[in-house]
Hints:
The complex is a heterodimer. Chain A is of the alpha/beta class. Chain A is built from seven helices and twelve strands. In chain A, the strands form three sheets. Chain A has a seven-stranded mixed β-sheet with strand order 1-9-8-5-4-2-3. In chain A, helix 2 (about 15-30) crosses helix 3 (about 50-60). The radius of gyration of chain A is 20 Å and the shape is globular. The model of chain A has no long low-confidence stretch (mean pLDDT about 90). By secondary structure, chain B is an alpha+beta fold. Chain B has 13 helices and four strands. The longest helix of chain B has 26 residues, at about 335-360. Chain B is globular. Chains A and B meet through helix 4 and strand 11 of A and helix 1, helix 5, helix 12 and helix 13 of B.
Amino acid sequence: MTVQDSGYTFAYLDEATKRMIRRALLKAVAIPGYQVPFASREMPMPYGWGTGGVQLTAACLTPGDVLKVIDQGADDTTNAVSIRSFFARVAGIATTEATAEATIIQTRHRIPETPLTEDQILVFQVPIPEPLRFLEPRETETRRMHALADYGLMQVRLYEDIARHGAITRAYAYPVRVEGRYVMDPSPIPRFDNPKLDRSAALMLFGAGREQRIHALPPWTRVESLDFEDYPFEASRPDAPCALCGATDSYLDEVITDDAGGRMFVCSDTDHCAGRRAAGHRGASTETGA
Amino acid sequence: MYVATKGGERAIGNAHAWLAEERRGDPAVPDLTVAQIREQMALAVARVMAEGALHDPDLAALALKQARGDMIEAVFLIRAYRTTLPRLGASLPLETAAMACDRRISAIFKDLPGGQRLGPTFDYTHRLLDFALAAEAAPPPAPEAPATPGPVPHAAGILDREGVLQPEAGGEAVPPDLTRAPLELPAGRALRLQALARGDEGFLLALAYSSQRGYGRNHPFVGELRIGAVAVEVEIPELGFAVEIGEVTLTECETVNQFRGSATEPAQFTRGYGLVLGACERKAISMALVDRALRARELGEEDTGAPAQDEEFVLSHCDNVQASGFLEHIKLPHHVDFQAELELVRRLRAAAAGAQREAAE
């Protein structure tokens, strides 16, 4: 179906709405890590399922763009399939599963393993953009804390983790500080992905539809994961190679293979894994040609 | 095995096909028409319009049919459609005093100008299942009377004239629009009322009920409750005068609440206000109670920290499309985050076991 047939404006949103979102995006890029309120629209998918990311993608798409959509790192997870087919339908743009071929990548919970370039935009779906929300439920209060860079509460929280567990127990949505100013929630990516935020060549945009907030990291922005001198931040992954491609530096999904405790680890980034296998890399479960 | 854990295009397609079949039900039973839903499930249609924030009985009925009767799903369908519509302008303020009332009651006066009229209400029905209805019997015709001529003045106006009811400040010329600007807090009453008008009926009912039970109590009387059609007028710039473009059914509730007065003000009554698209008086009354509860600080009442008095709490959580979307998103795969947690828990446990071993040695 072509865009003309779909009965909607290019990329679904009307032009006035896209302009409103682009203005908020410009502000977000100008103040890295700051949460810009925007008049989020109702989208034809539920809140919490990527409406923020979808609106940013819609506002950024041009007819020549090539879109990739991933969820949990994979192109074939149901919600990624659903969002990709939505844009193929309402924007008529080309889609791809290859990270290197995409100009815009919308993601939920992962950053691709393949390093991104200056010609790419990474759009994150964000459930709760406020890193301080679980310390302070009131928006009026957290906005004040950001304005005053009053982040002591967050440091205390991380310290309490160490006092209690000997380590910072944030496995995902690990808070970062942007250009030494705003503390930002990087969306629920595993903390393994946090180092990829720092000085990223690609523009990174974060959209929270239900919470009506946009924040952004312009290319090459300094992004530090919060930590302490004696307890430095540590990006962690399961201590195993990918069973399919043998990668030892990618983030892994644990796949339960039987009900007797059998399991294997495979790359969460399906494009990365397929690319390595195509290049001849083999993991434990593929070495025998299985 | 690896492929089986991932979803896919075919799975989605098949799920949609199955859903369509389930929606239709037994094909031996005749298909429901949209007109049947619009006429015979009118209160469901009204609720979908109110919470969907779009007045279109046919589309609301279609949404109900498509949603298999799931209210919130139908509301969501209407919202998603509404968002694609351009906003061409604003009507003149609706004149509810000129409402053609089907129902109009006041609990604070035995009788009053304009009269008490029950209208088509469930209120005094005995809730006994009507088995004749199962046999599809047509009801006997209802007795008719000529319509009451003239406008029905608001009951609050009577108290107003006496000065015992606090006058309301005029609103802004152009009220804020929740659907065109992000909600910023504190919101102000006009925006609050807008949010409540499209808020979830169940949520508002529970909040209003909690205020009656003592969590932010405000002693409400139903000053007036009216349901009926109101003309919608729009100023056409080229013409220079207002033109009636149609009419909508509204439910309006005004509560009269005790106020003991303060050091600077003598005792007088205050109001809570509820206005809902379509016939939905449970929600209109709930809205009026919640509106009044949210005015606690403005009226210098003790802030007891009750949920119904907390603007940020109420406005952040009253929208059922937002709430159900976010609630249900936890059905989506979260295995990347879970994996990260799992790995962390395993490491912490290994560290703890190591520490125990060392202590034992």
